[in-house]
Structure formats: structure tokens, C-alpha cells
Specification:
single chain
Length: 467
């Protein structure tokens, strides 16, 4: 798949006609880094659109004079849309190309986020957020696949970390909108602003976003591939060309590959990790602002609480990429999962003792965000590395969709835990979920003893998924 001789010069083009080896052994050009910046912007507006409902929720509850339980189906519908969109986006990306799948996804969730400003009741909001979720979910697998396919393997772990860090940055932007636009102009204006940014980005991508090299090779578009490689400062010999791999037949063909004998164990492990991790994450995303409001925080402070969480996520996502390159998947994954579980348990204990001081809660939220964002990065890095090109977007998409099933359940477990046991039960559930996610790391390490991950990285010292 993606292995190569680690002793070759980074700037030398191999004689092999394998495109992945050629990219892996070439310099990481300015054009490729610019593409990473584009994909990072996708994750930023994705995080913004995703978090917008959680930020607006306290204002919606007050404006419509209803209970928070009324919005559990709304949050669940959004997450169900994300799950469906992750699968659909992955299949479309592997079928029609990452570029068009990504542009369509960004445009869809931008339009639907803006449309939230027009709804008049929770039923309308639920329908719009479901469609919104389809776009949000479809963007993630194609963005991750594009980062992987434009980046040399020795920098892939860090590149994915840089891209993923923009999801919490999007959450920070959402928190900033909540602290300014929400208070001054109301929740409708906030949704309009949150939707306008991805719409503008989708329009820009029509002119600047290329297709991935691997997909162009698979589609047999040799001239377009050669022009793209030239932009990446990868020079080809006049006689050098690439033979397109045999394309899998049918829209659903990549699904069978994910559960093949070679990949089944890692696929199931990946699904379990995503399920528990995203269930914990979305419990926080969807309900922490409401929980803080229950504790007496005003709307500005509830926005700052979730902003602290995402601020920690920015740091955690970036540092996790460095640790992944040095220590590998299993060690990094288990350390972050264990740290997140401990912090969540400490928060549960503090709040059960009525310790609700801002100077206590906000730093703890920052640390929790640090650990969970890093945990996300380990899972997405693993997903983007273990699958071949013809199933990469589908593999990332279905793994993410499996996580969204846990996220859908979080819409109900979050509100039920708050109603039954308050903040103590709320963070207790989060701690258990994160501990279970850590067990997936133990299973990953056991799997690595049975079969090496050397084929997922060109340089063992920078393997994003080795232990």
C-alpha cells in the first residue's frame, strides 16, 4: 500500500511507477502545504456548523419556552444526518472524486446552517439539522482522504493533526459568535453568520481545489495527474507514466474490502473506538452549554465554557500529531483516553460538591478538550492510513459514521443523565465512555503484535499508527 524504502533521498523520484511511493519520497512542496490549508478550512467551518446548535440551544429554549428534552430529537436528527452523510460522502468520494464530493458537502451544510435562521419550531429545526448533518458528515472522510493523498507519509500524521485541529478552532469560532452575535442579535443572526462562511468557502473551492493525485491515477486521467504533480514539484521522466489500478465494480464495492480478512480486525476496532469516543465528545458538545446554564452561568459564560473546551482541543490536536509520529498509535491513544476519563471523573466529583467557580471549571474544560481532541486525531489518523486508495474515503466515512451512532445516543443519554443525576451523572457517563475508548487502544496494541503496520508508513520512526 504505502510502504517505501526509508533510506532513499527525500528529493529523489523513484524509478517505480507506484504513485504513492513517488509522493512519499518527494519533498513536501509549498503547493501541497497550501492544499493542507484549504482542507483545514473545511474542518474549521465543519466544526463551526456542527457546534452552532449547541451554542444556540440555551437561547432557543428560552425563546420557544420549552424544555431541553424537546431538543433531544433535534440533536439526534443532526447526528443521524452526520452518520448517513459520512457513509454517503465516503462512497461518493471513492466513486466520483474527492473534489466534487467535498465541494458539495461544504455547500450543503452551509446552506442548511443558514436555513436554521428561518425555522419556527423544533420540528422544522429537526428536519433542517438532519440535512445539515448530511453535509457535515460527508465533508470529513473526503477531507481526511485528500490530506492523506497529498502528503508524504513521513509528514502524514502531523498533516492530519493540523487539519483536525481546525475542528475545535471551528468550535472556538462558534463560541465567539455565541458570546457576541448571540447576545447582541439573537440566535437567528448567529445561524446566518455560521452558514455564510462555508457557502463562501465552497464557492472559492470551485476555482482552487484540485482532485487528489491517487484518484486521478485510478480514473486514468494521466495528463491531469502530470500537471498536478508538476505543481507539487514532482518531476516525471518523459517516458514515465502510471498504470491505473483496476477499479472496483459498483458503488458499494469498497465496503467488502473493509471487512476482508486482512482488514476486518482493524476495521472493527476502529468502529468501536469511534463509537465510544464520539458518544463522549458529542455529549459534551450538545449539552455542556445547557448544563452550565443550569449551574447559573449566563449565556456569555456558557459560550466561554465550550470555547475553553475547544481551546484545549486546539493544543491537544496539534501535540497529538507530534506524539503520534514519535510514539505511535497505541501508546498515544491509550494515554489520551485515560487522561480524558480521569479529568471527566474529577469534574463529576467537583460538581457533586457544588464547586462551580469559573476559575475551576474553565481550566478543567480546557484540559478535557485537550485530551479528547487528541484522541479524535489518533482515530482519524489510523483510519486514513490503514485503507488503500480505492476504499480510503469509504473507510474513514464508515468509521466516522459508526461514531455518529454513538453521538446520536448522546443526544438522549446527555439529557437523561442531567435529569436523573445532574452534572455528577453527566460527567460520570462521559468518564465511562472515554475509559471504554481506551480499551480499543489495548485491542489495537494486541492486534499490532499479530500483524505489523509497517505497510502504512514510509518511515518507521514517523509511523502514524505503529505502536
Amino acid at each position: 500500500m504505502q510502504s517505501s524504502d526509508t533510506g532513499m533521498s527525500q528529493g529523489a523520484a523513484p524509478a517505480s511507477r507506484d504513485l504513492t511511493d513517488l509522493i512519499d519520497l518527494s519533498p513536501w512542496s509549498g503547493f501541497q502545504k497550501a492544499m493542507l490549508a484549504c482542507f483545514a478550512l473545511v474542518f474549521a467551518v465543519d466544526g463551526l456548523a456542527n457546534q452552532s446548535l449547541g451554542i444556540a440551544l440555551p437561547a432557543l429554549i428560552a425563546d420557544w419556552s420549552t424544555s431541553r428534552a424537546t431538543f433531544a430529537p433535534v440533536a439526534a436528527a443532526n447526528l443521524a444526518g452526520v452518520a448517513f452523510g459520512s457513509i454517503l460522502g465516503g462512497l461518493l468520494g471513492d466513486r466520483i472524486g474527492r473534489r466534487w464530493a467535498l465541494i458539495g458537502a461544504v455547500l450543503l451544510f452551509g446552506l442548511m446552517t443558514a436555513a436554521c435562521a428561518l425555522v419556527q419550531d423544533p420540528t422544522q429545526l429537526m428536519a433542517v439539522r438532519f440535512i445539515d448533518g448530511i453535509g457535515i458528515g460527508a465533508a470529513i472522510p473526503n477531507g481526511a482522504a485528500l490530506i492523506s493523498e497529498f502528503t508524504p507519509s513521513r509528514r502524514r500524521g502531523r498533516a492530519i493533526a493540523i487539519g483536525m485541529v481546525f475542528i475545535p478552532i471551528g468550535g472556538i469560532i462558534a463560541g465567539g459568535l455565541g458570546a457576541s452575535v448571540l447576545e447582541a442579535l439573537g440566535w437567528r443572526a448567529m445561524f446566518l453568520v455560521a452558514g455564510s462562511l462555508p457557502i463562501a468557502l465552497a464557492a472559492l473551492f470551485l476555482f482552487v481545489l484540485p482532485e487528489s493525485p491517487s484518484f486521478l491515477q485510478r480514473a486514468g486521467k494521466h495528463d491531469e495527474l502530470a500537471r498536478l504533480l508538476e505543481k507539487c514539484r514532482i518531476r516525471l521522466e518523459p517516458s514515465q507514466h502510471f498504470t491505473a489500478p483496476r477499479a472496483a465494480k459498483g458503488m458499494m464495492a469498497p465496503l467488502g474490502l473493509l471487512l476482508s480478512a486482512d482488514l476486518r480486525h482493524r476495521t472493527l476496532l476502529l468502529w468501536g473506538g469511534f463509537f465510544t469516543c464520539l458518544m463522549a465528545s458529542y455529549t459534551i458538545f450538545s449539552w455542556v452549554p445547557t448544563m452550565l446554564h443550569m449551574l447559573g452561568f449566563d449565556l456569555t459564560m456558557t459560550s466561554l465554557g465550550i470555547t475553553a473546551f475547544h481551546g484545549g482541543g486546539v493544543i491537544g490536536a496539534l501535540l497529538s500529531g507530534i506524539v503520534l509520529d514519535r510514539k505511535g498509535f497505541s501508546t498515544t491513544h491509550m494515554a489520551l483516553a485515560g487522561g480524558a476519563a480521569v479529568i471527566a471523573a474529577i469534574l463529576a466529583g467537583l460538581l457533586s460538591l457544588d464547586i462551580v467557580a469559573v476559575l475551576v471549571i474553565l481550566p478543567m474544560m480546557l484540559i478535557l478538550g485537550f485530551c479528547i481532541a487528541g484522541l479524535h486525531n489518533t482515530l482519524y489518523t489510523l483510519a486514513a492510513n490503514i485503507y488503500p486508495t480505492e476504499a480510503r474515503a469509504t473507510g474513514v466515512g464508515i468509521a466516522s459514521a459508526t461514531g455518529r451512532l454513538g453521538a446520536v445516543l448522546s443526544s438522549f443519554t446527555g439529557v437523561i443523565s442531567l435529569d436523573l443525576g445532574g452534572p455528577l451523572a453527566f460527567f460520570g457517563v462521559v468518564a465511562v465512555l472515554l475509559a471504554l475508548c481506551g480499551l480499543s487502544g489495548v485491542a489495537a496494541r494486541a492486534g499490532e503484535r499479530r500483524k505489523t503496520l509497517a505497510h502504512t508508513s514510509a518511515v518507521p520512526s514517523h509511523a502514524a499508527t505503529g505502536s
